[in-house]
Structures
1.
Amino acid sequence: MPATQLKRLHPKRPMVKNRSLHAAKATKQDEFYTQLSDIEKEMRHYTGHFKNKTVFSNCDDPNSSHFFHYFSHNFEKLKLKRLITTCYKNCDANSRHVDQRGLYLEYAGDKNNNRVPDPDEIGVHKLKGDGDFRSEECVTLLGGADIVVTNPPFSLFREYVEQLVKYKKKFIIVGSLNAITYNDIFKLIRADKLRLGYGFQSGNAYFAVPEAGDYAKGVYDEVTGLVKFSNVSWFTNIDISKRHEDLILYKTYNSDKYPKYDNYAAIEVARVEDIPCDYDGVMGVPLTFLEKHNPDQFEILGLSGNDDYPMTKKYGKKERVVDGVRMKSNTGTLRAVIRMDSFGAGTHFDVGYPVKGVYRRLFIRRKKG
Ligand SMILES: C[S@@+](CC[C@H](N)C(=O)[O-])C[C@H]1O[C@@H](n2cnc3c(N)ncnc32)[C@H](O)[C@@H]1O
């Protein structure tokens, strides 16, 4: 591999200033590059799982992705067997014009004992097709891999996970927390086949982007060239240790503090830290509960708005009342709501009496014993 290309394989920092980078690439919403420090922080919880394993990163242009960098530089420490990376519609060796064909890199460890992946130790091959993770040649590579680690395109997350499950692969991947509410993703979570990893520091994830885009205020930082997301996490099916740690509960139940929903057989728990230690019935909790979930402590029954845990009541007609003013409701079916004494400040609904909606809730119940 030419030295210029190797340099591109080892990005020291996100190449956000290079505005030509991937200029011809498709959907912008998929172009967010994970920072090396975030990969390091997450992977240190999985170090025992990599021994003698083939790691596959299949959405990773070496020009911008740090996954190849992380695993090639930590190859010996993690006792890896092989590292494979495929790149979708790669930039060519001049890093300027885009090649519609994908690229495939492989590394099998340090051969000359200098403890770094040298150019002649890295195999670089052109793929026949564009490197789509669903293509036959990429699926063949997937077949030979043990653990898939990457940040896949957000827009294809559902399909991406479906493929990993179909081929029975272990994985550690980045995704939007919104994905929890997708039916098929939620089913995997409920069945304990998919769980949240350790996440990003303070709940905020910062990604490099190829160029300054049209972002909402406060999302793009011109100085760092990073965009901030607060709803992104790592997802995995690896048996991580935090999955076995009980959530410590301090609060006790009382019916005033924990109202019953009007349309679900459950009580409302507005914050994860408020889950009462002495309530054995069903509770509606925020989705962030999944960051702390131990399946031996709680079972997950459903999600408000999905059918797994059915509503006890459906409303014939409803009217929106905002700060006491009535207006036509264009909200679809109401999710979990609490009956109120009156229409106060904020948004309420009139379903024959006043109710107030809460955010999307997970329904959970303590396991016996
Ligand atoms: C969210 S970005 C993350 C990139 C890289 N994994 C990282 O973390 O820095 C997702 C990447 O997937 C690539 N991609 C989009 N569609 C793809 C597909 N069908 N198959 C493989 N990769 C794809 C995009 O070009 C983009 O670079």
2.
Amino acid sequence: MPTDDFGLPAESWRWTEQTWRGHVEAVRAGRRLVPDRWPGGARVAVALSFDSDHETIPLRDGETSPGRLAQGEYGARTGAPRILDLLGRHSVPATFFMPAVSALIHPEEARAYTRDGHELAVHGWIHERNMLLGRDDERELTARALDSLESLTGRRPVGIRTPSWDFSDSTLDIMLELGFAYDSSLMADDEPYEILAEGRPTGLVEIPVDWIRDDAPYFTMDRYGSVRPHSRPRDVLEIWRDEFDAAYRDGGVFQLTLHPHVIGHRSRLVALRELLDHITGHADVWFATHAQLADAARAVLNGPTTARPVPDAPEQTP
Ligand SMILES: [Zn+2]
């Protein structure tokens, strides 16, 4: 962060145009990557993801009490098996983003994801706060996470979601250096896009996320605070159903981020079950892992100009 002569954060209203423009252009959304039709002639792509954080959230913060760790353990012991069962019943694939420490605590779970035809992808080492790390530490932890998941499952992950969707000044460079095919941490669009670095195309596909399509903001709470943000699962279902219905109309992507320790509870899994019933009740739906979706998006980038603008969306800058 730029600072003034006293080491305080620089006052943004004093920035030159070059400075504020430089911040905005550092990491930016480029071309929107939506084909005429998704694979198999589908009109909508559905990309479900689960962030299997489990115990790493309290561990990351140095909270080692059995009580806090048990809340994460629930995700592995109770949530994940229920989710795998539900996905199996609907015969749909998903992507599981798993911090390496979580995968090392639960190696059988990590292997079960790939064995059942799902994708396992990188989600940091211990759900670290990359905004607090220097470049070397962030790179080393990301590389170690990549190697750990590969040695556990025999497959090298191709995708990454940063812990808590944070992006430091070094994150994009590290992703490119380590050869990731896609990222799923940014929010500049509803549809996949190419990430630009200082205006230059990087070839890295972004599969955007949003807090709207995440279970955690609706269901988690800070027990020492006064706010109790618990939502009724079927109210949340209605939001996600509206998101899917609009994506279906637009011919775009419906992407969802859930957490086994959050959505895996009996009363909340109802929302996912009814959402899957709703989606599978439609014709021409392509369920894809994030890696498969990134491949289809990249085909737009590399292929002839078959991309079309999504209805109600502004034209793309190149
Ligand atoms: Zn996470």
